[in-house]
Specification:
mainly alpha
Length: 323
């Protein structure tokens, strides 16, 4: 639990800024801009360029493949890569409420790393009290132990309900189910490979391809920009924002790769192979037992306990006398 909750804290700390409403709105706007650029680039811009350059479509494709392989490779994969990122962005938007609930375990003002101590501290206190009562044999100490046991039991039952632990635990399960395929070594590697394709395409498009096309059309950079804005506004807008948009997606992809291990630890709370919702019963079951034991012990009359003790002493003396 100590290791797993540390993983939760690292995971939520890395993704917290990406899951705010403003950050999610920006990510959605970025995704829409790139998608619109891709759609117009493939549907209008690239089909029109061969005619504008006086080339056949095959000659133009050969020209692009030979001179701008990163752009040619990126464009050919846009219809495969962008749906994956659309799914990722949609998943972030859908799971944002679950993330916020998971980020508030146990409360919104305590880190997740405090969860193990909610078991350790009461457990240690009860162990010391009960051990002292057994060793010293003092009735007042024994009754104090019973009272503390009953109080801890009540707290273990009531506190998870007050803190909405069952609801938060379900949110964790929903979150880990939704992003389980992404936060794996294979998923992170695939996201990184796709991001590299888009980044290489963007770099070559801006640094080499567009200047070359402007020269081939006998335009300077200003004229070419005006031509693109007038005829292909979605492409012009997308290209102008790539150097702002892609670093944000790079940060998201890097966060996925860096938190694969932390995600697996978070998915293993309370243990590997069990749903996080069982965490509630790690409080409820001991709480019920402690409350029952403490309540029964407190309700048992002291005189009855003394009578039992006296009977045990008599039995001991009889055994000693016969030996």
């Amino acid at each position: 639990m100590l290791s797993n909750t540390n993983g939760v804290e690292k995971l939520t700390g890395s993704l917290r800024s990406s899951m705010t409403p403003s950050a999610l709105a920006q990510t959605r706007a970025d995704m829409n801009t790139v998608q619109a650029m891709s759609d117009q680039l493939q549907a209008q811009t690239l089909p029109a360029l061969p005619g504008a350059l006086g080339m056949s479509p095959d000659a133009f494709n050969g020209y692009m493949g030979k001179n701008f392989p990163d752009v040619d490779n990126g464009v050919s994969q846009l219809n495969t890569i962008l749906p994956k990122f659309q799914g990722l962005v949609g998943g972030l938007e859908m799971q944002a409420p679950n993330f916020r609930k998971a980020d508030e375990i146990p409360t919104n003002f305590l880190p997740s790393t405090t969860v193990p101590f909610l078991f350790l501290i009461p457990g240690a206190a009860l162990f010391l009290l009960a051990g002292s009562a057994l060793v010293l044999g003092r009735e007042k100490l024994a009754r104090a132990t019973l009272v503390v046991s009953a109080v801890v039991g009540i707290v273990f039952i009531v506190a998870p309900l007050v803190l909405s632990v069952p609801s938060k635990a379900k949110a964790v399960d929903d979150l880990t189910t939704a992003f389980g395929p992404v936060f794996t070594d294979q998923g992170a590697a695939a996201a990184r490979a796709d991001m590299d394709v888009i980044q290489n395409m963007s770099n070559q498009l801006q640094q080499q391809t567009l200047p070359a096309l402007a020269g081939a059309l006998d335009m300077n950079s200003t004229q070419f920009q005006g031509f693109m804005v007038q005829n292909y506004p979605a492409v012009a807008t997308g290209v102008s924002q790539l150097n702002t948009i892609l670093p944000r997606f790079q940060g998201l992809v890097s966060a996925i790769g860096e938190n694969v291990g932390s995600f697996q630890k978070a998915a293993s709370i309370p243990t590997a192979g069990t749903a996080t919702t069982t965490l509630s019963w790690w409080f409820f079951a001991p709480g019920i037992i402690l409350l029952a034991i403490g309540g029964i012990g407190i309700a048992t009359p002291a005189v009855t306990r003394r009578a039992v003790t006296m009977q045990q002493d008599r039995e001991k003396r009889q055994v000693l006398s016969t030996t």
